[in-house]
Amino acid sequence: MAEMNLIGLLAEQSRMAGDMGALARVAAGEGSDGQEGAASFSAAMMDAVRSVDADSRVAGEKMADVDSGRSDDLVGAMLMSQEASLSFSMLMQVRNKVVGAVDDLIKMQV
């Protein structure tokens, strides 16, 4: 049981690392033109927000199942809760970096 949770956690970590790499490539402007790059960055951010929201909802459902007695997988619920928390933290870090970059651009003298 614990091995299965560990494998799932490692797979999720790998997926998140891939998502962050894709965001970094989009932020670096590796698109064919500006409009496509802007649209793909927006799409990547929306996908990240949806993924974090889905993780949070699943974690909430698992915790509710444990609380109500429908499930006895407390470890799985706690792992999912921590995973959702980590996903949200990473999303906030990306948001803070983007806001900081926009602030730096606004402060630049032309």
Automatic annotation (TrEMBL):
<dbReference type="GO" id="GO:0003774">
    <property type="term" value="F:cytoskeletal motor activity"/>
</dbReference>
<keyword id="KW-0282">Flagellum</keyword>
<keyword id="KW-0969">Cilium</keyword>
<dbReference type="InterPro" id="IPR001624">
    <property type="entry name" value="FliE"/>
</dbReference>
<dbReference type="GO" id="GO:0005198">
    <property type="term" value="F:structural molecule activity"/>
</dbReference>
<dbReference type="Pfam" id="PF02049">
    <property type="entry name" value="FliE"/>
</dbReference>
<protein>
    <recommendedName>
        <fullName>Flagellar hook-basal body complex protein FliE</fullName>
    </recommendedName>
</protein>
<dbReference type="GO" id="GO:0071973">
    <property type="term" value="P:bacterial-type flagellum-dependent cell motility"/>
</dbReference>
<dbReference type="GO" id="GO:0009425">
    <property type="term" value="C:bacterial-type flagellum basal body"/>
</dbReference>
<keyword id="KW-0966">Cell projection</keyword>
<keyword id="KW-0975">Bacterial flagellum</keyword>
<comment type="similarity">
    <text>Belongs to the FliE family.</text>
</comment>
